Amino acid sequence: MSELDKLLASCLYEIASCDDLKKLDQIKNAVFGKNGKITEMLKALKGLSDVEKREIGAKINAVKDTVNSRLNAKFVELEIALQEKKLASEFIDVTMPTPLHRGGTIHPLTKVMEEVSDIMVSYGFVLADGPDIESEYYNFTTLNMPDHHPARTMHDTFYTNMCADEHGRKLLRTHTSPVQTHAMLTHKPPFRFFAMGRVFRSDYDATHTPMFNQVECIMVDKDVSFANLKWFIANFLKKFFAAPNLSVRFRPSFFPFTEPSAEVDMNYEIKDGKMVFGSGDKWLEIGGAGMVHPNVLKYGNVDPDIYQGFAFGFGLERMASLKYGVPDLRNYFESNERWRNKFGFSYVTR
Ligand code: FA5
């Protein structure tokens, strides 16, 4: 057996029996490193004749190629094995419920979303959806907010650096009202839709957060009036707060996408650091409402000479705060365990 054959056999044996990346690296170095066995053999070719160089060089290169390809295959095999071992040790079953003994709770916002859904569905409204990343066209244009409208400014709206398309620049939607247009364009009236989800604005204080959630509602039919809107909102809120005598204030207001428009406030006071609704002389605005503007109906392919609609959009954190006494909206998103234990809901009693 030639020296080269012996080297090949021992390399292949060592590679095959190696089970550690570090050791494999050492084997590679011992063969191909600066003073490695094959490197030395190649260096020794210098002193040989051209004929010998060609003949022996070809044999050394063949061994080199074989060893190299086995080494590479072994590196891949060991790296995969290491990765699998790591993944197995880090496995988390995300389908398992949070162990109750570790204090897992239902977030007040989740609770409120479920409650709002139940009420909306009981009135025959169907859940609709729209993207968090919207285009200027749906967020503003179809809602009767022309190019120069102040709500479009960089100061109020988070624009993304994604490429603009035929619907204009992309932005984080500033309200859930664009869902109105999406729903109108995909359904024939009469219809009743509601949507819930995140919206984003350049705001930050105890009653304003840069990301918050809204519930949007739109009902389109023949002979829908502002009286229907007032009745519906009052009943919706009475059901939500389980308070038949709840007082709700409609303040004349302006939204480009509704005419006439109103802002809806609820009274509250702070008792023992908690917000208590239905008493006191403080008012918290929970949403905007109004009759859908004829231009908005047209953008949704709905004929305003035949159909009318009402719509409203409420802040879900503010509804949750009033119902469950949470004084500062910023806490909703801080993942503070003490806060969650105080305001969260048990799985069992939900
Ligand atoms: C709107 O967003 C309108 N799209 C609502 C609407 C829909 C009007 C349909 C007419 C018809 P407004 O900007 O007022 O309106 O926001 C609605 C509610 O979201 C507010 O009343 C408040 O409850 C909540 N809200 C607004 N900004 C914030 C914020 N930064 N943090 C938390 N809640 C907020």
Task: Describe the structure using short key phrases.
single chain, 350 residues, alpha+beta, 2 domains, two-stranded antiparallel ribbon, 11 helices, 10 strands, binds adenosine-5'-[phenylalaninyl-phosphate]
Could you walk me through the main structural features you see in this protein, from its secondary elements to its overall organization?
The protein is an alpha+beta fold and 350 residues long. It has two domains: 3-89; 108-343, Bira Bifunctional Protein, Domain 2 (BirA Bifunctional Protein, domain 2), CATH 3.30.930. The protein is built from eleven helices and ten strands. It has helices at 3-17, 21-32, 37-44, 50-89, 108-122, 136-139, 178-186, 226-240, 294-299, 316-324, 337-343, and strands at residues 126-127, 133-135, 170-172, 191-200, 211-221, 248-255, 258-271, 274-277, 282-292, 308-315. Strands 1, 4, 5, 6, 7, 8, 9 and 10 form an eight-stranded mixed β-sheet that branches. Strands 2-3 form a two-stranded antiparallel ribbon. α2 (21-32) packs antiparallel against α4 and α5 (108-122) packs across α10 (316-324). The longest helix is centred in the first third of the chain and has 40 residues, at 50-89. It is elongated and about 105 Å long. The site of adenosine-5'-[phenylalaninyl-phosphate] has 25 residues, from β5, β9, β10 and α10.
